[in-house]
Structure formats: C-alpha cells, structure tokens
Write a structure and sequence with these properties.
Elements: E1 10-14, H1 17-20, H2 28-33, H3 50-64, E2 68-72, H4 75-78, H5 87-102, E3 106-110, H6 118-122, H7 130-146, E4 152-154, H8 161-170, H9 182-185, H10 189-197, H11 214-234, E5 239-241, E6 243-245, E7 248-251, H12 256-266, H13 271-274, E8 280-284, E9 287-291, E10 294-295, H14 315-324, E11 331-336, H15 343-362, E12 367-373, E13 392-395, E14 400-403, H16 405-416
Parallel strand pairs: 1-2, 1-12, 2-3, 3-4, 4-5, 6-8, 7-9, 8-11, 11-12
Antiparallel strand pairs: 9-10, 13-14
Helix pairs in contact: 7-11, 14-15, 15-16
C-alpha cells in the first residue's frame, strides 16, 4: 500500500472552548451544569485552563510536530448579552490565532460548538427562526475583526447531533453519542431549573441539543448558510464548511432499510445545506449495525471504549466512502478518536483509522486532513472528566500537561506525512 498522504495534508488535534477554556459562565451549558438534578457528572469549572494557557498549549502542539489546531470561538464570550460584543474577548481570540501562526500551526476555527449564550434561551433558542440571523451577525462581527487570520472555518459542529439524540430517546438500546449519558439526560427537572437560570421558562428553553424536529433543523441549516455567506463576503479566502457526526452505518440481512433510513437522517437530509461549502467535516468514532428489528446491540465480548461504544477504527473509512458517494467537495476528518486510559489502544486506533484513510485516498477520494479528538483530556459534557480522549493528559490539581506516547506517534505521522516512519 502506498504510504504517503497528499502534500499539505492537515494533521492536527481539536478542542472545543467550553470543554477546555473554563469559566464559560454566560453559556446555557454552564447553567445546565448548575441546575437542580443536572445530568452532568462534574462541573466544568476551570476545565483545563486553556483560556489562560493557550500559548503554552499551542507551542506544545507545534513542538510535538502537529501542523493544525482546530478550536472553537465561544459565542457566549463574544456576545455575552444580545447586541453587545466584547472587544476584550475578540482580542483574546485574536492572540490565540496569532500564536497559531507564530508557531506554524494552521488554525481551523469552529464558530459554534454546542454552547449558546444564555440570553438566546430567553428568545426561544434554536426554535426561533431569528436565531439564524443572530448567529450570522455574531460570525460577521468576528470575521470583520479576525477573518484574515482564519484560513478554515466550520460554522457549526455536528449539526446532526440533535437528531442522533432524538433517536437515542426513542430507543434506549442506541449507543449514546460522544459526551451523552442516556439515563440522566432524560431526567426532566434539570431543564426547568436551567431555564430559570437563563431567565426564561421551560416552554421557551430550546438548546441546540434539542433541535431535532423539521422546523429547528431548518433553522440550523439557515444559520449555516447565512454564516457561510457573511464569512465568504468578508474574507473570500476562508474555506468554509460544517461537521456531521457519522458512525459507519452498516446492516446485516434484513436490516438494509433500517440502515438506509438512519443514514438519511444522519447525513442525506443535510446535503442541501452542505451544497456550496468549500469542504465537508466528517466526525467518526465507531459503527452502528442494523438488522431486521433495528440497531443490533453489542455482544458482551465486544471491546468497547470508555463511552461504551464499539472499538472500531475501521468505521472512519466506511463513513468516508459513504459520504463520498454523495458529495464532490474535499473531505476533512475534523474529529476521530477514542476515550481510553490505555494509550497503546489509542495508538492502535489511530494507526488502523489512518490505514483506512490511506485506502480511501488511494481510491481517489479527496481527503485533505485528519484532526484527532482531542488534544487534551478535557470536560466531556455529561460525562464530566471521566473520559480520556486526549493525546495529552492533564493533572487538573496543577494544570500540568502530561504528554502521552500517542501524541508523539501522531506528531511523527504529521512530520513524515504518512504511516511509513511512524
């Protein structure tokens, strides 16, 4: 097998603001963490203090040999109240971007990674059609200030996650998406408490994670299109896309119809929004197998990750091949990874996943980057700090970074632009 990857292939790791920065107090998720009956295992608190330590962290990624850093700009920081845009927060992210460029790291910026400003909930959140315009305005403000520093932009992260959550609620045999713990997520009282913390009522409280009906999905699509339009108008050189969470959907005899229906929900219903994008961000962690009665539960002897889903690095190639049947724009793997304390299994996971990516490229599929999730062991939403996705560990009592062997492995791959010397 040919071992080289395309020239200028994007090798890197990813984070999300709320999961690493700490003290995102103006966001809806912060309110949820502190609500009565909250399903969150931990409070995010200071997280891994990346808001303060970003310079050292980016320098560390560069020293490891990585070339791309995907991170998010936090809407709740930039616009803590409706119509007020914080100059100090804009300057903070300006410096983050400058540090990336200073150390030869290509920044890939996600404009929305699950967390919304609290004030948005008072307006109906992601059930209000005007949210699309408000989101686009936030993107406009950021890009007028910072656009020339951002070569790649993702408007939104995993726009299909609410649909996956809805499927989970309908059938509890489904494996939860990354960061979601099923039983506690369904507890009713915590959303009412969170709504009060955001200054509204439960009837008006509609977070991004709840946007699974046709109307709210259309609002999300509209937000993406309008954000893309303002970004390209302000800085035409920025390449713009979105990301979808896509398990490798497979079927056994009799399950073909279930699998096709699921793939349409997860992927094909978003094709109209993807049309016009510069690239597509695919995020894969495992597979789902469907039989005549729906998704097939895992056997007891199947290896699973800390999140409880199947250890299956080959799922990445499977998902890429399915996506490539319907789109003709470049594909960037914006997330792929594993939650485990066993770093040898992480290295094996990365190796096997990249062997699959290489086979896709050899077959002519235009894949232009691999971004591992995640850079650090961080706050994994309702699971708190119990999941270990990072190639870099963190002692949160001291915030000391602990480089794992998988970080060196990924850095060697980035430096050699392939698996042959790693």
């Amino acid at each position: 097998m040919k071992q080289g990857f395309p020239k200028d292939f994007l090798w890197g790791t990813a984070t999300a603001a709320h999961q690493v920065e700490g003290n995102n107090i103006n966001s809806d998720v912060w309110a949820e963490e502190y609500s009565k009956g909250s399903p969150y295992a931990d409070k995010s608190g200071d997280a891994v203090d990346h808001y303060r330590l970003y310079r050292e962290d980016i320098q560390l990624l560069a020293r490891l040999g990585l070339k791309t850093y995907r991170f998010s700009i936090e809407w709740a920081r930039i616009e803590p109240e409706a119509g007020y845009y914080s100059k100090s927060e804009i300057e903070h992210y300006r410096d983050v971007l400058k540090v990336c460029h200073e150390y030869g790291i290509t920044p890939m910026v996600t404009m929305f990674h699950f967390t919304s400003p609290r004030w948005l909930m008072r307006l109906g959140g992601w059930s209000n059609p005007s949210t699309a315009d408000r989101f686009a305005k936030y993107c406009e403000v950021v890009f007028k200030e910072l656009g020339e520093l951002i070569p790649y932009a993702l408007t939104m992260n995993e726009v299909n996650l609410p649909v996956m959550l809805h499927e989970l609620f309908v059938n509890f045999n489904f494996i939860p998406p990354v960061g979601i713990e099923a039983k506690s997520w369904t507890a009713p009282e915590w959303r009412e408490s969170a709504a009060r913390a955001c200054g509204t009522t439960l009837d008006n409280y509609f977070t991004f994670h709840m946007a699974s009906d046709k109307a709210s999905i259309n609002i999300i699509k509209d937000a993406h299109r309008k954000a893309r339009e303002v970004i390209k108008r302000i800085n035409p050189n920025t390449k713009v896309g979105l990301t979808l969470a896509l398990p490798d959907v497979q079927s056994v005899e009799g399950g073909e119809e279930h699998a096709e229906k699921t793939w349409n929900k997860y992927f094909k219903q978003y094709l109209d929004a993807i049309k016009g994008d510069d690239f597509f961000g695919i995020q894969n962690y495992t597979r789902e197998i469907y039989g005549p009665n729906g998704q097939i539960p895992l056997d007891d002897d199947v290896e699973v990750t800390e999140c409880g889903y199947e250890y299956y690095p080959e799922g990445l190639a499977g998902a890429i091949r399915k996506v490539a049947m319907d789109i003709d724009i470049p594909i960037i793997i914006t997330e792929n990874g594993i939650a485990t304390k066993n770093d040898e299994r992480r290295i094996e996971y990365i190796k096997r996943a990249l062997e699959g990516v290489q086979s896709c490229i050899n077959d002519g599929i235009n894949v232009q980057g691999y971004i591992y999730w995640s850079a650090f062991d961080n706050f994994e939403w309702t699971f708190g700090y119990n999941m270990h996705f990072g190639v870099i560990g963190v002692d949160r009592s001291t915030q000391q970074r602990i480089v794992k062997e998988s970080a060196h492995f990924l850095g060697q791959i980035a430096q050699s632009n392939g698996l042959n010397k790693a």
